[in-house]
Amino acid sequence: MSATYRAGTVAQAVVTAPDFKDRIAAHYRLAQNEALRIAFHAGPGDAAGSFDHWMTGEHDPRVPLMAYSTQFYTLIDRIDADATIVTEPPHQPEHSHPRFQFAPIARDRTKRRLGWHLEHNLYARRFVAEMRRIRPHVVVMGIDFPFWAYTALPRDTAVIISIHNTFWPMGRRSKDARSRLKLALAGRGLRRMTSAVCTSPECARQLAALTGRQAGQDAGFFVEMPQLPDTRLPPVRLREAAKNMLFLGRIEANKGVFDLLAAFCNIAGRHSDINLTFAGTGSAGPALQEAIAATPHAGRIQFPGQLSADGVLTALQAADLLICPTRSSFNEGLALVVLDAAAAGVPSLASSVVPAQELVPDACAVFPADDTDALQKTLDHLVSDHTAYQALVTGTAPARAQVLDRTHSWGSQLARAMLWPGQTS
Questions:
Q1: Domains of the chain (ranges plus CATH)?
Q2: CA 119 to chain centre
Q3: What DSSP designation does 173 have?
Q4: Which residues contact 414 (CB under 8 A, 6 or more apart)?
Q5: For residue 388, what is the enclosing H or E element?
């Protein structure tokens, strides 16, 4: 099925200079009428589905934030480039556009241990082979590749890293020999990169530490600010006390769900008006359901499962406090839910390995990761001390402007990264 692209609201997702297309042509020494060739590793998400929504001028309604793939399509359309989108799902989009080609490369994510490592390397070989076949001027890819894959890419291809997760928990870099070797190999491969778009300042710092570069725009590191479509910015309601608590994310032990349950139950007896909601799915879901049922406060704990984008908005509007209790065993790149919550006027309580607090410093209280007692005490303090809680609510105000500042969207930062080294403003 073919359709004509209608710009709609997606056209405002990326901000570039008026002469950006000419700068790209000069930067990559394109011949007259030659189109820039760019490849984008979209990973396991449904980039084809996002493309169908983009073709109608709409943001993907299935996700609350602006999808990276949507911003990528907008940027490519603006400069009339030829793009290859590498996806893991096998299906093609329903709509077509002469500038976009989808190249599915299968990946089995069910394997474990040795099977996982074999599949990891086989997938990388398939990806590298595709890049050698199409020989793009630019490839945009993540850090989920073995170290050798980056250096195996065509030598004349610019490599832009899009990094969404840290390499180690913030402030807790491992010192054991195995981890040091793994990080050394990762750094060796990533030195091949030209520039990077990072989801948080912490991601930029860690990437810089591994590659021996400075973590700033002068070194080609650009930090994005996740963006909300205008239609998904929820109204802010008056919040006077931390009564309705919300966990929003993957239901896994390393995301701290059992720590949160224990902390809530330990203070619930003293606060009869507080409630807790766990929203999400994950491998720890059945165990968490059993643990909830075994508590004397099960009637005050909800577990609705996975929420749609509209469901996330509804949950945030009902919440008074978002809790992100990630443990140090998980490498949290940002924790987007903290920004989602702040944009809705909801403050957060996060563990010390969650980098989001740096972006909303006045709207997020922090406790030491893995310390359930500290989580409980901080939670009890915010429930009991309305002044302390109100200070956090007030601190959410700047976030609404940040998530609407398209000059710092992922796509806008990618545009700058594409022109590095050189003038990027």
A1: 8-227+405-418 (3.40.50.2000), 234-402 (3.40.50.2000)
A2: 24
A3: -
A4: 14, 71, 72, 75, 140, 160, 162, 197, 222
A5: helix 386-394
Structure tokens at 63: 């996700």
Minimal CA–CA distance to 271: which of 388, 376, 377, 380? 380
Looking at residue 213, its amino acid is R
Nearest CA to 246 among 342, 329, 327?
A: 342
Q: Is the pLDDT of residue 75 over 80?
A: yes
Sign of CA dihedral 264, 268, 270, 271: positive
The answer to whether 149 and 127 are in contact (CB under 8 A) is yes
CA distance between the termini of the chain: 38
Radius of gyration for the alpha carbons in the chain, expressed in angstroms and rounded: 22
> Does residue 1 surpass a pLDDT of 50?
no
Cβ contacts of residue 182 below 8 Å, gap of 6+? none
Alpha-carbon distance values, 22 to 29, 49, 414 (Å):
10, 31, 16
pTM: 0.90
Decide: 359 and 200 in contact? Cβ < 8 Å.
yes
Q: Where are the beta strands (DSSP E) in 171-300?
A: 195-198, 221-223, 244-248, 275-279
Where are the alpha helices (H) located in 272-349, listed in sequence order? 285-293, 309-318, 336-343
Q: pLDDT per residue over 133-152, tens digit each?
A: 999 999 999 999 999 999 99
